[in-house]
Amino acid sequence: MRYTIQRSAMFLAAACLLLAGCGGSSGGSDAAAPALPGTAFVATTDYSTGGYATIDLDTLAAQTFQGSGIVESDNAVTAYGGRIYVINRYGFDNITVMDPSDLTAPVVQFTTGNGTNPHAMAFVSDAKAYVSLYGADYLLIVNPTTGEEVGRVDLSGFADADGIPEASAMVIVDGKLFVALQRLDRNSWFAPTDASYVVVIDTATNEIVDADSSTPDTKDPIVLTGTNPQFLTYDNALGKIVVSETGSYGAQDGGLETVDPITYSAEGFFVTEGDLGGDVGALAVVDGAKVYVVVTDSSWANDVAVVEKTDGSWQKQGTLGLPGAFIPGLALDGQGRLLVPDRDTTSPGVRIYDTATDQEVEGSPVDVGLPPNSIAVF
Question: Which domain holds residue 69?
Answer without folding.
Answer: 1-87+96-103+328-378
